[in-house]
Amino acid sequence: MKKQKGILINRELSWLSFNDRVLQEAEDVSVPLIERLKFLGIFSNNRDEFFRVRVATLTRIVKHQKKAEELMGENPVRLLNNIQKTVIEQQIKFEKIYQTLRSELEKNNIFILNERQLTLEKGVFIKNFFREKVLPSLFPIMLDNASKFPYLKDKSGYLIIKLGKKLKEKKNKYALIEVPTDVLSRFVVLPKEKEKNFIMLLDDVIRYCLEDVFTNFEHDYITAYNIKLTRDAEIDMDNDLSKSFVEKITKGLKDRKKGQPVRLVYDSEITPEVLSFIMKQIKLGKEENPIPGGRYHNFKDFIKFPNVGPPELSYKKTVPHKHPDFKDQTSLLKIIKKKDVLLTYPYQSFDHLIDLLREASIDPKVISIKITLYRVAQNSNIVKALINALKNGKIVVAVIELQARFDEESNIYWANKLQEEGAKVIYGVPGLKVHTKLFLISRKEGGELCNYAHVGTGNFNGDTAKVYTDHSLLTTDKRITDEAEKLFTFYTDNLKIGTYKHLLVSPFTMRKQLTQLLNKEIQNARKNIPAAVTLKLNNLVDPEVIKKLYEASSEGVKIKLIVRGICSLVAGVKGLSDNIEAISIVDKFLEHSRVFIFYNGGDQKYFISSADWMARNFDHRSEVAVPIYDISIQQQLKKIMDILWADNTKARVLGSLQNNEYRKTESKNKVRAQEEIYNSFRLKKN
């Protein structure tokens, strides 16, 4: 599809619009105060990853500008300029929100102190804390004496220190200190005074004690400025055939840490000569995103801001409900044998999956467990259950994707652990990222082999399952389990692709089958048969399917889109997308599940999927969408989707202006979907 003005929103600019929705949560006075600070951290962490991946990629592309413009349909330099302009605007907004939050914290007896605001008593506490905890982790580098400017690590924050002399003939000295947040908390909680809580950032603890660090140097004053460098996070793979895939990934991870700089964030109070010196040393030009900021950087640390003060300043803890089918202490395998089960996180407990794998690991009738692992928790109970299965004589086959960005090291660690215990570990598929969320338990029953399948939308990660909304289908339906078995055969032998009538499988059938489903809606609309599509996605980018959605809209198909992140489609354009409505929900939980519903002339088709509607998911990844055949589960999904669509509290309208206006509905009642869904599961439990 040829890109036309107003037809497709650039994915990078759409992503920035999404991150602005995160920033809105920090601004929203209805959000508990400490959580608003944490949303600043999420915003900052998101932006760091955006620069490490997307901006880094664009920076590479600029080197081939003419060819890149033909492929992208736009000028990459102009796009980078637009990105930088938007980022600076968001940074200004960010700083205003932060200062507002500091004022609100003070009204609630929480004070973030800097080095100039300490009483004598607090100063003594900080000095003692510094000598005992901080100083052993500080390793200043004198820039004057260094033959080479020190390497600045990605994700780390630094203080540039100026040891100043009042007399012009005396030469100033400069030093660099890494803020040691890898070993210490960014936040130092000082002793309370009655109802008052005091917190100091580690940066300011160091500032307060700089005289104790530089006792050997003559100076009249000391100043310190915060800087942070973001590097290209792409992994380059060499073509050395003598190296294993694991060796190549491991080398790539080491090289990533030395990636090219793509952004420098600095304290806007920094002196021009110091800034110029730094940029020259790290070879960063003005066109490569130097961004003035406030006094502090690495706000990602604010995700872990301490929960001080009264409980109402933080979200009330939501305890996941037990699934009603699993509430009694009985065999989960027996329950799944009788009926399909849908688990919905974080509203229902992820522990059910661990319980199921634990049961399978000791069941004498279970022969094997096969699983795909994309991102697992740091202390993974899923992997522990697999290791237990191995110790109990089961066959375990683990397809581990080593190219799961930023989780490569963790995945290598768990791959080695499983191999040590005797599992068959498959490192993905050459040329494809394995992004499916599958496991298959094979059990001998009455002389026959019965397969129990899991097909889901989220990773087998107990940590993210507490904050990501996802679905897991558990079934023994042979239409699904037989095709899941074919996929595991493909992972073992890449020549055996298999045929799929029920599962939608990327890169083989998903694009074609989704197009056919959309065409069916178009045909029905032309026959004046009611036609509708409801989609819930993280990202909607692929030009071909967007074109098909535009076509469906122009033919009268009613389309509802719930897209959390990037949405390149423009809804509500007269003559093009009149029948498309698009919203995005950003709230306490991260909306991660993918759900596709096609009206199909009244015989509705329901799917849950691991795949967003992006070219990479359709063409360059192994993905699965599974049909939901069970009527009661279809009704569960419909209820959830109806509640999400009714949201008029946390839903924003996705339009061409990308201004993230909060959605208004005809309902007089406030609907906050995530709370409604959680409560609906609680009522069901009772």
Alpha-carbon distance between the termini?
52 Å
CATH topology of the largest domain: polyphosphate kinase like
Number of H- or I-type helical stretches? 19
Query: Can you count the beta strands?
Result: 26
State the CATH superfamily name of the largest domain: Polyphosphate kinase middle domain
Mean pLDDT: 89
Which structural class best describes the helix and strand composition?
alpha/beta
Radius of gyration: 27 Å
CATH architecture of the largest domain: 2-Layer Sandwich
- Which consecutive residue ranges, at least 5 long each, have pLDDT under 50? 1-6, 235-253
The CATH class designation of the largest domain is Alpha Beta
Helical amount: 25-40%
Spatial shape: globular
Which sheet architecture does the biggest sheet show?
Answer: 9 strands, mixed
- Per DSSP, what share of the residues sits in E-state strands of 2 or more residues? 15-25%
Domain module tally: 3
